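Issue: ligand-bound run for adenosine-5'-diphosphate - logging full I/O for the record.

Environment: standard queue, default settings, no custom constraints.

Inputs:
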Amino acid sequence: MTSRPEGTQLPVVLLSHRGPVSFGRDEEGRRTASRGAGGLVTALTGLMSDLPDAVWVCAASSEEDAAVAAEHDGDAVEVALEPEPRLLDQDGEDGSGVRLRLVEVDQRAHDDFYTVIANPLLWFLQHGMYGLALAPVLTKREHAAWNDGYVAVNRLFADAVVSEVQARGGRALVMLHDYHFYLVARKVREQCPEAVVSFFLHIPWPGPDAWRVLPPAWREAVLDGLLGNDVVAFHTEGFARNFLLTCQELLGLPVDLEAMTVRVGDRVVAARHYPISIDVAAMRELAASPEVAEHADALRDAFCGEGRQLVLRVDRTDPSKNIVRGFEAFATLLEDHPELVGRVSFLALLQPSRQDVPEYADYLAEIGAIVARVNAAHAAEGDAPIDLRLVEDQALAVAAYTVCDVLMVNALADGMNLVAKEAVVVNTRESVLALSENTGAHQELGPFAVTLHPFDIQQQADALHEALTMGRDLRRARRQAAARVVEENDIAKWLSAQLNDLGVHFAAERVRPPGPA
Ligand code: ADP
Ligand code: F6P
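Outputs:
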């Protein structure tokens, strides 16, 4: 799919916490493979097979992942990612596989790393979710989790990345992903000076003051780790600027907001922005599949009869997605417009996310409670207006995109939001995108959406009404325009823009031609 520019014909070592596939066992004890959750996996899955000599380093997230890794002595395994993930024979059945290095992490260290520091602390801080009066609290427990969890796990993954780079002769393009791994680049740079090291953040980067919630030693470690990269990249220019301002204010480093760079000793680190996207062709291919068609028929029967309309949301049950306020807004809509009761349904396809983090388990309970309240208050002839399904089912989600009339994305804050991009390219009913102004996607799709203000329930209810009553011509024009934006800025463009920039950087700054000095 993607042609790689000169200068980046390097092997690629990619790191993310969540991998593209996770293994398990079914009731008969047979090994199963399922797709990893979230936008990062969606975006990167289609790309990996296009990168020659690439390895994806990720956490072994289940016992079966650890068993697979152990069967291969901790070396990379070969997997096919599409159409469905599966383990291939040792060297790939047809050479089309992706190499996956599953890193096993001690359970306790992983809990500290994932359920105490990365989620909630970093996630909440970066999505602006702390009120600060009562949370967060950093006690001995959090200090231990920082040292024995976040720092230790970063060290473990840095070692895995270093060994993959060294196995490739020390020269590789290292692509580090997301807030789990702020400390990795510094260590990779120290041990692999010939590597080009880049980092991509999939979530927001807030302004300098937000980072003061972290103790100075922690926030300085985060910044110092990131400054080990050649390029630190974000979804939006605003996040990139916030990063530079954070370096300036918290580390006193000189930044250039024109060139979008920060100077660290004799090095210059670039802050860039590349809005992530989806594989449009693959999404449309999936939408045309018999499995999706079957789901779409069932959804049409259930929700799209004469005079009826369907509001949809597809999300992880993440507090940042603002699901509870979304249902409150829907209830307000039904109260303000009782003529819609019995005519408009709300289908919510929600993947229970991070249930080992107490804040997330509580939030899922809140979701259940608000749905019960709204359904009890607004049932029409026994029909509940909200159909809440706690599922992770890509085919069902895509089928729902095709038949909905309104897609609701009201996130408090979201680095990008791929759900919005997915829906506009496959919908067949000229649906309206109701999109939070606090998503990265709003910068591209806002002009064609009904904008939602995530904290204003009345505004969201009014916006839903506007979406449900919008004329067909306007809906069609807007949906088509939004789809064109996504088609023109798809995932291939996201990757090639980075590879081009890294290639230029590599050619200019990092590689000296072999020969006498
Ligand atoms: P995040 O990265 O925070 O999870 P995004 O909207 O960017 O949010 O990406 C979410 C990805 O996960 C999308 O590809 C979406 O289709 C998928 N997804 C989310 N919820 C579900 C679900 N309930 N079932 C299937 N896929 C889902
Ligand atoms: O895109 C943001 C992100 O945090 C990814 O890093 C992550 O893989 C995904 O959401 C899902 O979260 P988790 O891996 O914690 O289930």
